[in-house]
């Protein structure tokens, strides 16, 4: 069965093709689009075991394959049927493990458990399910979606359920979503049970857990005029970690309300040459796990921005204050996603274990100013920026025991001419602790992207990313570290790209090991070839390793595992 899935996934990995349904039914002449994203990975492990591998088909052909090495095949199939104002969508995901079982002392062992015992599957090392499905219909003033939908109100302070493929997060709301439009007025309502993506497309699938049935319901009213005004409310009912998945998830509606959030925002564009935005949200916590044993607890957040455009300059000023907002993630953080997020004012590319504490702080305020100046419009634009944050939280992810004042100045430049491109960013972040005995955390960072045309359709692209971090004084002292992540890509015509990746880190908190031990134990290296025969399909082949680490996107951070081995993939690009 698993071999058939692999052949099917790789065999169907072709560009999206739209065709029309024939017949005389309600979907006659509808367009049909199928996309396939499939990947086969060979995971190398540093573990050693005296067991004997169980033979498992052609995937035993790797010379010297260690007992704990295994193959993983992942496939994602998306079907979209559209006719006029009607859309029907279906996403089917599947994963299979090969060569992940061996015998030790006469007993069969599993190198990697694919799914949790609570997950229902007919196969020990394969799992497939309909991950997303929806039907959407539009009329003159009404749009209705039944099935999986997404929603974000304002800047996401109260609700931000969106796809975040940068960190392999895709939680939707399975229920109903309606939008009513009349003139300058919009009303949006959504309600359902959260549907967390169970099969990861980019990260290893290990001990897949069943979907947890949290309930979310929200509504938003918007008026569009000289000043756009919005008001919204969201209600949450969360499942507890000790609870079994509900046989009928809709019964979650009968449980007590855990959190209620109300918020409002305004937006004015072009007023006195300024673009102005402001939003406020009030959190009403009722669950004792969120209130420190109190009957109720209030949290709040506010965010605002002003953009000005004097001459060739663009000036952006942002500010935020939040208090007890991260309590909202009490039950979803273990699942790796967040139902709402507040703009971080951070440069997300350099967030570390220390910086992620500020991103997820329960008591923080700050501002960020950035000025871009187009010396040569469209060609040469330098910028300077400064972020100042006051983080009073000392719990959770924080290493510090006293308040921190975070100062983070940055500068950079964007330059392009013909096919020459250079983008550079550099900065220094200092987390000054109120208790001077704790010292300060310091980080210096630099990153840049450089594109050099060679001859004909040939070109080189160089990506450089480095940061040096020095800790303050902590109860459990960590070691200072240096990290680098670089890539050199050769663009051979329009269809081929060959990439060499190099990572290096001596961060003791990173849970992975380098593969280029002949250079050093902390050195990672990899090669990748990409082939793009047309505008909507890409083939990739990768071999090597990259380090584990924290990656942040859209105000959410996730600790991602390292990888060593090989993978081949094919995906449509639309």
In words, what does this structure look like?
4% of the residues lie in helices and 54% in strands. The longest helix has 10 residues, at 2-11. The protein has helices at 2-11, 288-291, 353-359; strands at 17-20, 31-43, 52-53, 70-83, 86-98, 101-104, 107-110, 126-138, 142-149, 151-152, 160-161, 171-182, 185-196, 215-223, 228-237, 259-271, 274-285, 297-308, 313-323, 363-373, 380-391, 404-417, 420-433, 440-453, 458-470, 481-492, 496-505, 523-534, 537-546, 549-553, 556-560, 563-572. The model is unreliable at 1-17 (pLDDT under 50). The protein is built from three helices and 32 strands. The chain has a 24-stranded antiparallel β-barrel. A three-stranded antiparallel beta sheet has the order 3-6-7, with no helix packed on it. Strand 28 (523-534) and strand 29 (537-546) form a beta hairpin. With 574 residues, the chain is mainly β. It is globular and about 70 Å long.
Structure keywords:
574 residues; mainly beta; 24-stranded antiparallel beta barrel; 3-stranded antiparallel beta sheet; 3 helices; 4% helix; 54% strand; disordered N terminus
Could you list the spans in which at least 5 consecutive residues all have pLDDT below 50? Answer: 1-17
Please report the distance between the alpha carbons of the first and last residues.
30 Å
**Average of per-residue pLDDT values:** 89
- Percent helix, as a range, is under 10%
Structural class: mainly beta
Rounded to an integer, what's the Rg over CA atoms?
A: 26 Å
The number of helical segments is 3
Counted beta strands: 32
Beta-strand content:
over 45%
Shape summary? globular
Largest sheet geometry: 24 strands, antiparallel, barrel
């Amino acid at each position: 069965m698993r071999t058939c899935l692999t052949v099917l996934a790789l065999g169907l990995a072709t560009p999206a093709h739209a065709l029309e349904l024939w017949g005389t039914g309600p979907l006659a002449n509808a367009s049909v689009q199928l996309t396939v994203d499939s990947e086969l990975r060979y995971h190398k492990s540093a573990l050693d075991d005296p067991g004997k591998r169980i033979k498992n088909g052609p995937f035993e052909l790797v010379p010297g394959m260690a007992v704990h090495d295994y193959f993983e095949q992942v496939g994602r199939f998306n079907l979209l049927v559209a006719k006029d104002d009607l859309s029907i969508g279906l996403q089917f995901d599947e994963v299979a493990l090969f060569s992940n079982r061996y015998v030790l002392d006469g007993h069969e062992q599993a190198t990697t458990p694919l799914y949790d015992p609570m997950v229902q599957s007919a196969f020990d090392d394969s799992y497939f399910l309909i991950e997303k499905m929806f039907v959407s219909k539009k009329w003159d003033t009404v749009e209705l979606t039944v099935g999986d939908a997404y929603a974000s109100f304002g800047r996401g302070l109260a609700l931000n359920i969106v796809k975040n493929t940068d960190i392999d997060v895709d939680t939707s709301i399975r229920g109903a979503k309606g939008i009513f439009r009349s003139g300058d007025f919009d009303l949006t309502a959504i309600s359902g049970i959260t549907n967390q993506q169970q099969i990861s497309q980019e990260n290893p699938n290990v001990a897949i857990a069943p979907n947890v049935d949290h309930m979310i319901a929200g509504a938003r009213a918007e008026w569009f005029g000289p000043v756009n005004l919005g008001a919204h409310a969201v209600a949450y009912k969360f499942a507890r970690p000790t609870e079994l998945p509900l046989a009928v998830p809709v019964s979650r509606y009968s449980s007590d309300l855990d959190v209620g959030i109300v918020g409002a925002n305004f937006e004015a564009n072009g007023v006195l040459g300024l673009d102005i935005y402001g939003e406020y949200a009030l959190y009403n916590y009722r669950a004792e796990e969120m209130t420190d044993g109190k009957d109720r607890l209030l949290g709040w957040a506010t965010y605002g921005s002003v953009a000005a455009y004097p001459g060739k300059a663009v000036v952006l000023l942002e500010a935020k204050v939040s208090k007890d907002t991260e309590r909202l993630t009490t039950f979803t953080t273990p699942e790796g996603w967040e139902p709402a997020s507040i703009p971080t004012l951070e440069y997300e590319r350099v967030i570390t274990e220390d910086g992620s504490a500020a991103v997820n702080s329960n008591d923080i305020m700050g501002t960020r100013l950035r000025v871009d100046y187009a010396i040569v419009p469209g060609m040469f634009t330098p910028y300077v920026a400064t972020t100042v944050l006051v983080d009073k939280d000392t719990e959770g992810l924080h290493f510090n025991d006293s308040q921190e004042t975070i100062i983070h100045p940055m500068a950079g430049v964007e330059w392009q001419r013909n096919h020459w491109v250079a983008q550079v960013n550099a900065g220094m972040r200092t987390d000054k602790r109120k208790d001077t005995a704790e010292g300060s955390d310091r980080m210096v960072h630099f990153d840049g992207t450089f594109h050099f045309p060679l001859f004909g359709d040939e070109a080189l692209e160089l990506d450089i990313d480095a940061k040096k971090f020095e800790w303050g004084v902590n109860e459990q002292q960590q070691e200072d570290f240096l990290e680098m992540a670089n890539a050199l890509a050769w663009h051979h015509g329009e269809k081929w790209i060959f990439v060499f990746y190099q990572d290096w880190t001596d961060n003791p908190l990173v849970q992975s090991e380098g593969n280029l031990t002949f250079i050093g134990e902390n050195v990672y290296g990899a090669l990748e070839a990409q082939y793009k025969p047309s505008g909507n399909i890409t083939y990739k082949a990768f071999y090597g390793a990259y380090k584990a680490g924290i990656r942040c996107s859209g105000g959410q951070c996730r600790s991602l595992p390292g990888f060593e081995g090989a993978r081949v993939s094919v995906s449509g690009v639309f």
